[in-house]
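Pinned message: reference record for 13030_t:CDS:1
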Amino acid sequence: LKMAIINLNCVLLNDNGTHSEDEIFTIEISNDKKYELLKHMVKERLAPFFDSVPSTKIRLRLSPNGNNIKPLIRISDDFPTSPSEEDLIYVVPTPKK
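Predicted structure (tokens):
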């Protein structure tokens, strides 16, 4: 499989599981990387929101109510080519302490 630089559209879910289109942001990443790296990039991009949260605690999903994506899966397993504009990676807010 050939590595490709892709743009992943991500959005932070609200506490009630909804999101606003205004909050969609794009991260450019190689699809041969693992989701663990994407978590780190999301943390940086959303600073200061996740400042007190380790990137390992950030949860990503392919659908708002779906399962959390396992961090060691390669992005190419889900996106062998560039995702469509409608494809979103959902960032789950970390529960408040």
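Pinned by admin. Summary line: The radius of gyration is 13 Å.
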